Request: fold
Amino acid sequence: MTRTFPLHWADGRSAVGTRVDEERQLPSAIRGLGLHAPRPVVVVVGGADGLEAAERDRLRTIFRSAVIPVVQRFAAVGVDGGTRAGVMLLYGETRCEAHADFPLVGVVASATVRTCDESRQTEGQSALLEPHHTHFIVVPGDRWGDEAPWIARTATILAGHAASLTLLVNGGEIAYTDVQLSVDSGRPVVVLAGSGRAADVLAAAAAGRPPDARAASLIHSGLVRSVPMDSPAALAAVLTAILDERERPSG
Reply:
């Protein structure tokens, strides 16, 4: 049985967390957080500390004008890596700025994070939890990327038969794993072209420019599409179209 626990920050913010040790515990852990399927899910993966200040400012506008309004409109659940860095920080902060009320779930590997107390430095634990998230799932792992399969599985469980998608923004090596796991789950991936690194490699492959073998395989799945970073309206339209899809009875 999994149990929930409270998380509190010095500024008065709070969240609820749960810890899982095995994959079979994940469905009951999610229900224990008060989150029930099916409901649409928007996963955000990509750049963490690799994002420069200028890039973050540009991306903040995109989250404010395209991502957050769409997630809110569909009463979806947001899912990401949960730490106070890069796209995860942007997801949390722009959700708060918009006074949105959709759940935002951070999935974190246990040995890669530390508690809300910023003054406590524990060897091997380097990242703070992002304080604008509403829920956290702590999973086994001592390296960055160990949380990736848990993020994908959490999204699949939460969505059930509802629509879900993964948005890739920037990203390094772990981003390829995130995208592959989404593809393996049958989840569409939207790549923000122009946001840098892995996202731009995949966007180039989607445009037919010579990719590496890894990018080619992902594009070949038919589940990966790209949207230019300079067109928030186009991004919002693509996200909306995917979340508008509903499972229809066959026959």
In short: Residues 117-124, 247-251 have pLDDT under 50 and may be disordered.
